[in-house]
Every structure is written in structure tokens, then in C-alpha cells.
Write a structure and sequence with these properties.
Number of strands: 9
Structural class: alpha/beta
Bound molecules: inosinic acid, magnesium ion
Strand content: 25-35%
Number of helices: 4
Length: 177
């Protein structure tokens, strides 16, 4: 069996740009008169968050959280831990907008949603760039969604495989050939 891999472009940088602009327009419209706290999920959301905030015309603040899933594989055992969190005071009463690269099984975002809701925010919404609905285990309501991806392993634009390929400007499928 060969272990050679190949990257095939799924969404070009232009398609990503159009999508991020659309998400930003929706967020600008919905948060008029507000000052949301954008919560980026490390590390995958770093590129999306950077591109997104530069198209926001409303005042925003930025924070980061980090999650880790435990279990035998990356398929997720269902145990997701918040390894870098936020203080109760920084969330209480705020309009929180979670920014995440991809929604897959839903285990990470449902855990994060629970974690943040306990800190009594005024509201919590979710913005994702990619949605992989075929692998969902837990239903998660998303407010701003970019593009739907097939049940393949995706890299680029922040998404990694073993910490590699985050810097690719296009979103690619990592194929074994
Ligand atoms: P979930 O808890 O299964 O929804 O997992 C979401 C997390 O898994 C994302 O934040 C990504 O870090 C990672 N992930 C899921 N699918 C992919 C993929 O196709 N490529 C890279 N990372 C992925
Ligand atoms: Mg991630």
C-alpha cells in the first residue's frame, strides 16, 4: 500500500474570499449597535478569524479558546476538554460569536457552547467556514455557515493534518494515492 499523498483544490482562495465576505456582511447586519466578543477556536480558526475581522465594520473584541479531544482516535470518543478557556467575567453579559474552521461530528462545538453558556453571556452564536454534515454525531445550530464539504479530509486555510498544511491559501482535499 502506498502512503503518498496528494492535495486537490476543493475551494480556491477566490471562492473562500467570496464566502468570508458573505459571512462578514451577515455578521455586520445582525450585530448593528452591538460589540460582540469573537471567540476563535485554536488553532484552525486563526486564518478565518483574521480575514473575517478585517471585513467587520462593527466594533469587535477577540479572544481565543483551545479544545482537546481525548480518546483512541481523532474520530473523537466524545470527550472534549477546554484546555484554554475564558474567565467568567470576560463572558458574562457579552454577545459571543464563536468562530470555528469546520463543524464535523459536532462534539467540539457542543462542548464549547455548553462551556460558554454556563458563564451567562447575553447571547452565543456560531460562525463556521466549513460544514461536514455527513459525520454529525451531535446536532449543533449554526448561525453563519460558509461551505459544505464532502466526507473527506480537508486541509488548508487554517486546517491541518498533523499540524501541516495550515498555511495553504486554498482549501484542499488530502488524498492518499
Ligand atoms: P468535531 O468535534 O468532530 O466537530 O471536530 C471539529 C474539529 O475537528 C475541527 O475544529 C478540526 O480541528 C477537526 N477536523 C474535523 N474535520 C477535519 C478535516 O477534514 N480536516 C482537518 N481538521 C478537521
Ligand atoms: Mg479546530
Amino acid at each position: 500500500m502506498s502512503h503518498t499523498t496528494q492535495l486537490n483544490v476543493l475551494f480556491s482562495r477566490q471562492q473562500i474570499g467570496t464566502t468570508v465576505a458573505r459571512l462578514a456582511a451577515e455578521i455586520n447586519r445582525d450585530y448593528q449597535g452591538k460589540r460582540p466578543l469573537l471567540v476563535g477556536v485554536l488553532k484552525g480558526s486563526c486564518i478565518l478569524l483574521s480575514d473575517l475581522v478585517r471585513q467587520l465594520t462593527i466594533p469587535v473584541e477577540i479572544e481565543f479558546v483551545a479544545l482537546a479531544s481525548y480518546g483512541r482516535s481523532t474520530q473523537s470518543s466524545g470527550r472534549v476538554k477546554v484546555v484554554k478557556g475564558l474567565s467568567d467575567a470576560s463572558v458574562r453579559g457579552r454577545d459571543i460569536l464563536i468562530v470555528e474552521d469546520i463543524l464535523d461530528t459536532g462534539l467540539s462545538l457542543s462542548r464549547l457552547l455548553n462551556y460558554l453558556k454556563k458563564k451567562k453571556p447575553a447571547s452565543v452564536k456560531i460562525c463556521i467556514l466549513l460544514d461536514k454534515p455527513s459525520r454529525r454525531k451531535v446536532e449543533v445550530k449554526v448561525d453563519y455557515a460558509g461551505l459544505i464539504v464532502p466526507d473527506r479530509f480537508i486541509v488548508g486555510y487554517g486546517l491541518d493534518w498533523n499540524e501541516q498544511f495550515r498555511q495553504l491559501p486554498d482549501i484542499c482535499v488530502l488524498e492518499e494515492i
